[in-house]
């Protein structure tokens, strides 16, 4: 990978303890070294850590160069609330930038010497340009994200409207289907009821015919019995009369 593709840039607005005016720290982070430029608005300072210096510092702290760089970027790219920052005077107009951090429960401090720049205006203007460009990029990003959000919101509203429409159509379809089903079911029930009534009516007619037949047979049977009884009576009377005549003739 090309080094320029791995280079990072940061700019920290640092408010030191006991002061109200901030300083600005612009960092350029390479794979094995870093460059720092600092301004307070009137003066500026530079710290260009070479690969050799960085390797030596990392060895003193028993750290890989990459880990040392990552930790330095973390504290000089963003102000850490639990860290104590200092930007104190050093000989020949230089400054000493330091910050504290904890490692395995022990509070440690890193220091780097920053030399006075001979062209403070150029350094200050460069930091301000970087901040303006970063602000513009941030504004553009906010605008793009706002547009994306508005677009997503519009799409979500469309989806919601479509979902409601589909839900209403589903309800209407289910209602229509249910109504049709009820109508068919009621028609079947009416048909079954009519068939049942017809069947019951047929049973009643058959029962009436059977009862009528039974009554007719009973009447005929009674009539036949009566006729037989009458015939027997007549025969008995005739026989009695005949015997009476015979007795009379004998006497």
Automatic annotation (TrEMBL):
<dbReference type="InterPro" id="IPR009089">
    <property type="entry name" value="XRCC4_N_sf"/>
</dbReference>
<keyword id="KW-0233">DNA recombination</keyword>
<keyword id="KW-0234">DNA repair</keyword>
<dbReference type="Pfam" id="PF06632">
    <property type="entry name" value="XRCC4"/>
</dbReference>
<dbReference type="InterPro" id="IPR053961">
    <property type="entry name" value="XRCC4_N"/>
</dbReference>
<dbReference type="GO" id="GO:0006310">
    <property type="term" value="P:DNA recombination"/>
</dbReference>
<comment type="similarity">
    <text>Belongs to the XRCC4-XLF family. XRCC4 subfamily.</text>
</comment>
<feature type="compositionally biased region" description="Basic residues">
    <location>
        <begin position="242"/>
        <end position="251"/>
    </location>
</feature>
<keyword id="KW-0539">Nucleus</keyword>
<dbReference type="GO" id="GO:0003677">
    <property type="term" value="F:DNA binding"/>
</dbReference>
<feature type="domain" description="Carbamoyl phosphate synthase ATP-binding">
    <location>
        <begin position="131"/>
        <end position="138"/>
    </location>
</feature>
<feature type="compositionally biased region" description="Basic and acidic residues">
    <location>
        <begin position="213"/>
        <end position="233"/>
    </location>
</feature>
<dbReference type="GO" id="GO:0032807">
    <property type="term" value="C:DNA ligase IV complex"/>
</dbReference>
<feature type="region of interest" description="Disordered">
    <location>
        <begin position="195"/>
        <end position="251"/>
    </location>
</feature>
<feature type="compositionally biased region" description="Basic and acidic residues">
    <location>
        <begin position="195"/>
        <end position="205"/>
    </location>
</feature>
<dbReference type="GO" id="GO:0005958">
    <property type="term" value="C:DNA-dependent protein kinase-DNA ligase 4 complex"/>
</dbReference>
<dbReference type="InterPro" id="IPR014751">
    <property type="entry name" value="XRCC4-like_C"/>
</dbReference>
<dbReference type="InterPro" id="IPR010585">
    <property type="entry name" value="DNA_repair_prot_XRCC4"/>
</dbReference>
<dbReference type="InterPro" id="IPR005479">
    <property type="entry name" value="CPAse_ATP-bd"/>
</dbReference>
<dbReference type="GO" id="GO:0010165">
    <property type="term" value="P:response to X-ray"/>
</dbReference>
<dbReference type="GO" id="GO:0006303">
    <property type="term" value="P:double-strand break repair via nonhomologous end joining"/>
</dbReference>
<keyword id="KW-0227">DNA damage</keyword>
<dbReference type="GO" id="GO:0005524">
    <property type="term" value="F:ATP binding"/>
</dbReference>
<protein>
    <submittedName>
        <fullName>DNA repair protein XRCC4</fullName>
    </submittedName>
</protein>
<dbReference type="InterPro" id="IPR038051">
    <property type="entry name" value="XRCC4-like_N_sf"/>
</dbReference>
